[in-house]
Design a protein that fits this description.
Number of helices: 10
Largest sheet: 5 strands, antiparallel
Order of helices and strands: EHHEHHEHEEEEEHEHEHHEEEEEH
Helix content: 25-40%
């Protein structure tokens, strides 16, 4: 289970993971093993498009092509000789534009780039598809004048995740970075009804989808929960804490028995950090919990027991790299 953006920089104040009431996670932590994992390779931007491939088994060699990821997530066709670019619509001060601003920006972009197709995604996100190069009308920070202070930010081209998985890996989530990366890497993707990627997402539907995948014999089931990250981007700390508590109550608690019956391992970790004070991602190593009904032995000598899955509980542990961590887990 990937709790997107749930981690935070340590300071004097409790983090969201420390503030959240998570009885299911706490019980697992008391009988499981904690580790400290580097999900963002040095020199790469902190974000789901960088960290989630590492969690799934491929460490990016450079910035990941977010346009390709979004096209895969939303089922947008990209023809031969074409590219896709993710474009964010930003309001004054760099905040995410609202629905009206994003719609106006999409219409203006269609007029300015007639050789390209413009797709509305979720929230402030657009997808521009067409022949390269990227049209001059939307470089980073270009002000398009659809409303005062509105700007377009195009994500740069980058590496595309390789097809290294197969349908034995099932990824459950909303349409976004996790499901786009999963499709590109070859996994089977399930987008349950009501899965939005935001704080209003249908976690019960994700739980049912995960249980169905386990019953169907999937070798690995990955559940992505985007709500903590979205709340942190909005700088709403209480909403982030509530999102973590919902995941504990509506996802982790119902799945424990299924993991127990399957004799499997339940792994819970953020993909990266996101500070609700600033709304920005960070690339610090994240806390990770592994629990198995077969016993509570640590995965390796660096693992540590604790009653909580928090940044502070793993702060003194050495950092494990993703491939090294996967080998230890196996």
């Amino acid at each position: 289970m990937i709790l997107d953006g749930a981690s935070e920089p340590l300071g004097e104040e409790p983090t969201s993971l420390e503030s959240a009431r998570t009885p299911a996670l706490d019980a697992l932590a008391r009988g499981g093993a904690l580790s400290r994992l580097r999900t963002v390779a040095p020199g790469l931007p902190a974000g789901s498009e960088t960290a989630i491939p590492a969690l799934l088994g491929w460490t990016p060699t450079g910035p990941v092509d977010r346009g390709a990821v979004e096209a895969a997530a939303h089922g947008v066709p990209v023809g031969s000789g074409e590219r896709a670019w993710r474009v964010d619509v930003l309001a004054a001060g760099g905040a995410r534009a609202d629905a009206a601003g994003t719609s106006a920006a999409a219409e203006r972009l269609r007029a300015l780039a007639p050789r390209h197709r413009v797709h509305r995604l979720v929230g402030h996100r657009l997808l521009l598809v067409g022949p390269p190069p990227l049209p001059d009308v939307c470089p980073f920070g270009f002000r398009i004048g659809t409303q005062k202070g509105t700007a377009l930010r195009a994500w740069p081209e980058g590496v595309v995740p390789p097809r290294v998985l197969d349908l034995r890996t099932v990824v459950v989530g909303a349409r976004g970075a996790a499901t786009g990366v999963a499709r590109l890497m070859g996994a089977r993707v399930v987008v349950p009804p009501g899965a939005t990627g935001g704080v209003d997402t249908a976690l019960d539907a994700k739980a049912h989808a995960a249980l169905d995948a386990i019953a169907g014999g999937a070798a690995r089931v990955v559940i992505h929960v985007g709500a903590p990250d979205e709340a942190a981007h909005a700088r709403e700390r209480a909403a982030k804490v509530a999102a973590i508590e919902r995941a504990d109550r509506e996802l982790i608690a119902p799945l424990v028995e299924a993991v127990r019956q399957a004799g499997a391992t339940l792994r819970v970790c953020p993909d990266h950090g996101c500070d609700p004070r600033t709304g920005l991602h960070d690339d610090a190593p994240v806390p990770c919990l592994d629990w198995s009904p077969a016993g509570a032995a640590p995965l390796d000598a660096r693992a540590s027991r604790s009653a909580r899955l928090t940044e502070r509980a793993v702060a003194a542990l050495p950092v494990a790299e993703p491939r090294e961590w996967e080998t230890a887990a196996a």
